[in-house]
Amino acid sequence: MPGSSSNPPNEPNPTDFAGSPRPTPLVAVHQRLGATLTGFAGWLMPLRYRSETAEHLAVRRAAGLFDLSHMGEIVVSGPDAAAALDHALTGQLSAVAPGRARYTMICAEDGGVLDDLVVYRTGEREFLVVANASNTAVVDAELRRRSAGFDARVDDQTAGYALIAIQGPQAAGILAPLTDVDLGGLKYYAGRHGPVAGRPAWLARTGYTGEDGFEIFARPDDAEPVWDALAGAGKAAGLTPAGLAARDTLRLEAGMPLYGNELGPDVTPYDAGLGRVVKLEKPGGFVGSAALAERAEAGPRRVLAGLTLTTRRVPRHGYPVLAGDRTCGTVTSGAPSPSLGMPIAMAYLEPAVTRNRETALAVDIRGRAEPADLTDLPFYRRSRA
Amino acid sequence: MSVPAELRYTAEHEWVAVDGPTATVGITDFAARSLGDVVYVSLPAEGAAVAAEEPCGEVESTKSVSDLYSPVDGEVTDVNVDLEDDPGLVNADPYGAGWMFKVRLRSDAGEDDLPPGLLSPAEYEELTKDSD
To answer: What is the mean pLDDT of residues B91-96?
Structure first.
């Protein structure tokens, strides 16, 4: 039975990569916890520990602990580091203060997205660029190429970092006793150097779940003690280890794009509704700026929209979206939403369809048109204290 | 992973229990674990004819959807309506409360007349041992 299932590009697929998938520094922890491990972007990752739905809800209601050590860490440093990144990326990194972070993208000359990134300014002359695991090599190569002529050094240090995330409303309360960093003073999209559980780390208030939470970049040898300290400290609060399956449904509910689904080389940031990350006005231009300026002028060719369904059948990556008997778009990501209790999907639709909310839409789920309602993204927004 | 000795299996990860003229069908513990949380099960209608190795329903989980195959020929006499409200029974108890449908076998059929493609517990364990 499992063999007959569809396998969209973002799905774990061990056969995509030659050789054995690379273990993270936490693989022994996952095995001890009885995780289902899967090959993902060349890494051996926890897909789930027990029930991915329970893990998802734990993150929404309490907190979840994630191993994200597959993510790429590329350090860009030197006197011209900020200028090199201004040239290489869509965002204006020179305008980011030390200790702050930006969500940004690296685009090709034609404006297509090569990866979406979180970039931390870890010092006046140093940035930590976090890339998707499947794109780390491409991002590293492009940053090297694009920083030629700048006094900047690009260094893929992925092997030198373990990345642990703690996400959810209880995350700050669990983490606070384990660190000297004043979490009350650490804003969303800010980071600090500081010890966690007595180990040196870069501690940032960032995440990919739609909840408050933190990402901890630590040395690989420190990964297990940091994980164990967090797991121990969070037990009473309901902290649960959470795998990639929960991470995917959490980010989908939060309306966050996934490279390979909503983003790719044939998609511009404008298509994805993320034109705000493109700083056309920054001085000096950047790789892809000419093409992106044209796209900004012409308006979007398609619109990333949210759909909810009343059936219990699940729309999945690649399924056609119908307006009457006509195809008007394609599902990019879909899942049963644990928070909403119904199937949800993101889809690229013709702009006209999203403007006229009267159009009756449906998703073609394996030959049957299942009615779908257009809805604003995100599907889920946390309540803020 | 559990593979009860009294059942027969298909290569598509269904189990079948034969009791006289009635066969009860579900998916294996291995299948349930591979799929992750089952969120919806589409079953054949009562009275429908099913045929061995042909799809007769589907199982939706968080990450994927799979066809459900009947291991045997016959007529559906009962379906597990509890799965409508609680599809998670498939994960919690795949060989018990997570059963899916019952089939009345051909009236003169006996255990020896089951389709030749069905696997013994040992054969099924062999099939799944490398991917567990």
So the answer is: 98
Tell me the residue range of the domain where B13 lies. 8-106
**Chain mean position to CA A61:** 20
Instruction: Select the residue from B1, B25, B54, B62 to test the A interface by mutation, using most A Cβ atoms within 10 A.
Output: B62
- Indicate if the alpha-carbon torsion angle A254, A255, A259, A261 is positive or negative: positive
Residues of A whose CB is below 8 A from B63: 5, 11, 52, 245, 248, 335
CB contact under 8 A, A316 and B65: yes
Is B129 a member of any domain?
A: no
DSSP element (H, E) containing A57: helix A52-61
CATH second-level architecture of A2-69+161-253?
2-Layer Sandwich (3.30)
pTM above 0.90, yes or no: yes
pLDDT in tens, B69-84: 999 999 999 999 999 9
Task: Tell me if A48 and B36 make a contact (CB, 8 A cut-off).
Answer: yes
pLDDT of residue A359: 84
Task: Residue B1: name the closest of B26, B30, B27 by CA.
Answer: B30
**Residue numbers in chain A where pLDDT is lower than 70:** 1-18, 385
Q: Give chain A positions within 8 Å (CB) of B37.
A: 51-53
- Of A248, A312, A335, nearest to B40 by CB-CB distance is A312
Residues A149-183: tens digit of each pLDDT = 999 999 999 999 999 999 999 999 999 999 999 99
Check if B70 contacts A (Cβ < 8 Å): no
What type of residue sits at position A222? D
Q: How confident is the model at residue A14, as a pLDDT? A: 40
Among B44, B47, B5, B38, which residue's Cα sits nearest to residue B25?
A: B44
Fold annotation for A72-156: Alpha-Beta Plaits (3.30.70)
CA of residue B86 relative to chain centroid, distance: 17
Q: Which residues of B touch A249 (CB under 8 A)?
A: 62
Do the Cβ atoms of B35 and A4 come within 8 Å? no
Average pLDDT across chain B, whole number: 91
